[in-house]
Specification:
Layout lengths: L1 H9 L1 H19 L3 H14 L1 H13 L5 H31 L7
Helix pairs in contact: 3-5, 4-5
Length: about 100
């Protein structure tokens, strides 16, 4: 129990900052209109390509016998790729809604 209190005391600034970020993030997201929520989220998913680059760098720097780093890096690449592709698919579908329909 004493270890937990010492960890909290050493990281009180980070805990305060994390709490503040959670409160501000919740307030910002809760005030976004529902009409804008899907396009913003699809764009944010597409930006997650940074995760893929970071995972590739981690996998490149990992030792060949470090299976944990290689497995987590591979998993991050797969999940990041799914997130990016999903972001583009949702964005494309949203843009299709605004195109004029052709008359037959």
């Amino acid at each position: 129990m004493e270890n937990i209190f010492s960890i909290i005391a050493e990281n009180i600034e980070f805990i305060f900052l994390l709490t503040l970020m959670i409160i501000v993030g919740f307030e910002v997201i809760s005030n976004v209109p529902a009409v804008l929520h899907t396009p913003l989220m699809s764009g944010a998913n597409a930006i997650h390509g940074v995760v893929i680059v970071g995972a590739i760098i981690v996998m490149g720097q990992a030792e060949s016998d470090d299976y944990l780093a290689l497995t987590l890096g591979f998993l991050a690449v797969i999940l990041g790729t799914l997130n990016v592709v999903g972001g583009f698919v949702v964005t494309d579908r949203m843009l299709e809604m605004f195109k004029r329909k052709k008359k037959n």
